[in-house]
Amino acid sequence: MSTIGKTLNQFIIESQRAFPDASGDLSGLLNDIGVACKQIAHLVTRSGISGLGGYAETHNVQGEPQKQLDILSHDIFVQQLGWTGHLAAMISEEIEDVISIPTRYPRGQYLLAFDPLDGSSNLDVNVSVGSIFSILRCPDSTTQPGMKAFLQPGTAQVCAGFTVYGPATVLVLTLGNGVHGFTLDRDVGEFILTHPNLRIPQQTAEFAINMSNQRHWDSPVEKYIGECLAGADGVREKNFNLRWVASMVAEVYRILMRGGVFLYPIDERIRQQGGRLRLLYEANPMSFIVEQAGGLSSTGEQRILELMPTELHQRVPVILGSSAEVARLIRYHQKPE
Ligand code: AFP
Questions:
Q1: What averages of pLDDT result for each successive group of 10 residues across the chain (337 residues)?
Q2: Residue ranges of domains in the chain, CATH in brackets
Q3: Cβ atoms of residues 157 and 285 within 8 Å
Q4: Residue 260's closest CA among 274, 273, 245?
Q5: Of 39, 124, 226, 291, whose CB is crowded by the most CB atoms within 10 A?
Q6: CA of 281 to the centre of ligand 1 (A)
Q7: Where does Mg(2+) 2 bind (predicted)?
């Protein structure tokens, strides 16, 4: 299955064959997500030409100003996936409530949670952005799925993925059997398997955190970053590199490629709201992918995938990446001294 060069569609169909009773619903849904991501890739690449890279006059459910492409990318997901008959409902970063499937369309067995355009504050400076998605099973006998249907732990995810719209457009996917990267061949219009069975190195010398928040950090993060900055002269006895793209998809993709640790921890500014990143459509899908690639993902106190969600848009602290470094940060949270 992991032959480089096969299309996303071939990979999905071959994955389905491992489940003789499969209905084909998930395969159809994944292909439709691939089409939506290709459409968004096209919009992102042309945003400077089309004049769509700027802000809309609106704010999202988080009260954050929306880019026109945030709204258009959201619309593409809803229009591309609503009619297919694979979904029972959707939730989006851009909309407060559950998005129901119109009664004129058949309803499927899956729930989709997505961030249509993560990192969109980078659009006007031409830095990589992306789409993130998480697929859950709709609880049985739920005819009209509401918020409760989505409040499942990350361990219940059937599939998770993200697309990076960067120098190359790459879709990264896990179905619970490893992590695989597909590069968009624009000449053919297909995602091609280029990075099968991605694995995150256990060790790293590269960390990603927004250093401007340093004065707000709790002591475990202060201790860890301080040791990284002390480099070869300090207890770690090696020098570290810092990267901060401010686009989670770009950070996670880099970590999948060469290791690293990404931190968006709780701090004094965001303690009240629980963190910066959203659990259902950012932290959970990225944690599923990172763990499937041999990494770890934690709030510092708990494994993210085991958190029991209480709200659709709840935020959590995120520390993910190379297992040796995340394990060290967990230890520092357990024994801050
Ligand atoms: P935007 O989608 O508003 O650009 O936020 C991106 C993001 O959710 C995540 O992708 C980044 O890692 C993080 O926020 C960057 O946060 P800071 O802007 O506080 O560094």
A1: 83 90 91 97 90 79 81 95 95 95 93 96 93 96 88 98 97 97 96 97 98 97 98 97 98 98 96 96 98 98 98 98 98 86
A2: 8-195 (3.30.540.10), 206-334 (3.40.190.80)
A3: yes
A4: 245
A5: 291
A6: 13
A7: 115, 118, 282
Residue whose CB lies within 8 A of the most ligand 1 atoms, among 60, 248, 266, 270, for a mutation test: 248
Cβ-based burial of 334 (10 A; exposed 0-12, middle 13-18, buried ≥19): exposed
Q: What is the DSSP letter of 232?
A: G
Dist. CA 169–CA 185, nearest whole Å:
9
Greatest distance between any 2 Cα atoms in the chain = 66
Residue whose CA lies nearest to ligand 1 atom number 1 = 119
Task: Evaluate if pTM is beyond 0.85.
Answer: yes
Two structure tokens written together for 261: 């640790």
With tokens 């769509």, the residue in question is 52
- The rounded Å distance from CA 290 to ligand 1 centre is 18
Residue in 203, 183, 318 with CA at minimum distance from that of residue 255: 203
Six-digit token string for 284: 């959970």
Q: Do residues 130 and 107 make contact, with C-beta atoms less than 8 angstroms apart?
A: no
